Amino acid sequence: MTDQTMHFQAEVTRLLHIVTHALYSQKEIFLRELISNASDACDKLRFAAQTNPDLWAGDTELKVTIAVDKANRCLSIADNGIGMGRDELIANLGTIARSGTGEFVSSLSGDSARDMALIGQFGVGFYSAFMVAGKVEVISRKAGEAQAWRWVSDGSGQFSVGEAEREGRGTTILLHLREGEDEFLDPMRLRQIVRTYSDHIALPVVLHEDGKPETLNAASALWSRPKSEVTEQQYKDFYHHVAHAFDEPWLTLHARAEGKLDYSLLLFVPGMRPHDLFDPARKSALKLYVRRVFITDRCEELVPAWLRFLRGVVDSADLPLNVSREMLQNNPVVARIRQAITRRVLTELEKKAEKDAAAYASFWENFGAVLKEGIYEDAEHRAQILKLARFRSSAREGWVSLDDYVAAMKEGQAAIYVINGDQLDQLKRSPQLEGFRAKGVEVLLLTDPVDDFWLSVVQDYADKPVKSATRAGADLDAVPDTVESKPEGGDKLEGASLGTLIAALKQALGDAVKDVRESKRLTDSAVCLVAADGDMDMHLERLLRMHQKLDKSSARILEINPGHALIKALAARAQQPGAMDALADAAQLLLDQARLVEGEPLADPAGFAQRLARVMEKAL
Ligand code: ADP
Ligand code: MG
Prior knowledge:
This protein is α+β, with helices and mostly antiparallel strands. It folds into four domains: about 5-220, Histidine kinase-like ATPase, C-terminal domain (Heat Shock Protein 90, 2-Layer Sandwich); about 225-355, 2-Layer Sandwich (Ribosomal Protein S5, domain 2); about 390-485, Rossmann fold, CATH 3.40.50.11260; about 495-620, Heat shock protein 90, C-terminal domain (Four Helix Bundle (Hemerythrin (Met), subunit A), Up-down Bundle). A nine-stranded mixed sheet has the order 1-6-5-4-7-3-2-8-9. A hairpin with a 6-residue loop joins strand 4 (about 135-140) and strand 5. Magnesium ion (MG) binds near residues 33, 36, 37, 125 and 244. Adenosine-5'-diphosphate binds near residues 33, 81 and 126.
């Protein structure tokens, strides 16, 4: 069979172009990437061999071997791990399967400095080999198979795959170094790179120089070493390896428990938000080990979904080595580890929040929306998460906790007020907030989709009811006016003329509204919509309709501002003969206007346009 030539996925070609053309200052990281892949491959083999010992019979000492061929200017990195078959070579090294890749590649601008920073965050894994090599050969033989395969590419858009020979299972990456990259043939330099970046790898990394083997790294699992023997830099390098990430960890949590439950954990909160955090397919990414043997990185039960941003390793001494993925479901040991992780992480977050508000804010900006899912899903930890939550506010810049909010409540203020919407600046301009602002009452501005859901299960905080500012019941009468909010002129509509207008509007609007009434919350706008007590929140309803979870919309209460010039003019017109005909268009327009401000679609856009045209015509 002759070699077959294929094209890289378009994203890979773009990535390779940048990788090979940019002058990246830290080219040596290619070695870390290739050793990391070799280590992953050995973990996978060890796990597979638990159920099928034939896979590693005769060769159970897993290791990574680096060899230098100065005469041909080649560097090779070999492992005796799981190996890849032909189809795997094509899929794994010809495409980027990780979710979020499309988005990542399209955010690359062509400006090499900016792009390298982005690549630094996202990581290019195997493809980093092309930073130093003009040609890369991969010779791989899958465990349990006799045939080996060779993958070759110069990184310019194509690769070829054909039959090859390899002694034993595993993968060899052969790098034909570019001009000027001879430093990577120097054993001193290689030793230094491996110690810097790969010391934490749990397998020996062995350098072969003139036939003499030399182990370069410590080769013990980092999480099983005592904390006092691990440096910051080692934690950081381990995070890069285990999370396939390139940022700085925001939090490192290394702990060991003995007694009823025997486990070690080394967990990280990333410093940056991963691209696929909200991808529904993304599950927990913690790696589970049993007594230092890798079991799986797909154990969903290990950590609640609302902590899915955690990265790292959990090593249990209580599970059997031959545990299957099925056995991990509903496993009581796993459930107890999950409890312990949850408790430890929440405690750490509390400490960080107390110690350094600014640093905590950066965590919250990245992961707050995920953590808030726990308020809804996890009744047991609800109170703790609410305490950790931070919000934007109508009354101040920055992040506000519920405790901050309660401390700043006004005399006579009975509730914690919130308002939901899609965008912060749109929410800040909501007519419903006018009255709150006039009284100096703070409203928390909620813009994450998850906010609508947790609000349905949180009735109060610190004995104060939590209420939407768009609800009819939000009553501010007991809060004294601030000086600036005293209505100027004071000539508000009152009594009979207000009553007549309200009656006329009700008649004109019929079932389209639940009620029409005088507003206590408006100071500048003429009208707004509010939800009756017991009705669904307006923003939640819109969200559900958008996702086809709801097909009807409920009628709202239309509030009118008796101090507004337009309302006063309409009231005057309502007193005169023929009022009902004259007010029909105006009533509809008022309602449509309130809907538009709310972000609601118009029920009848054509009708709206006709009415607007008629009213404008008359006014001109
Ligand atoms: P990542 O390691 O983040 O998945 P890489 O670009 O580093 O991304 O590697 C892509 C894939 O290629 C890996 O997920 C793995 O399936 C495969 N792979 C790379 N190197 C090896 C290897 N030495 N042995 C077996 N599989 C490998
Ligand atoms: Mg990798």
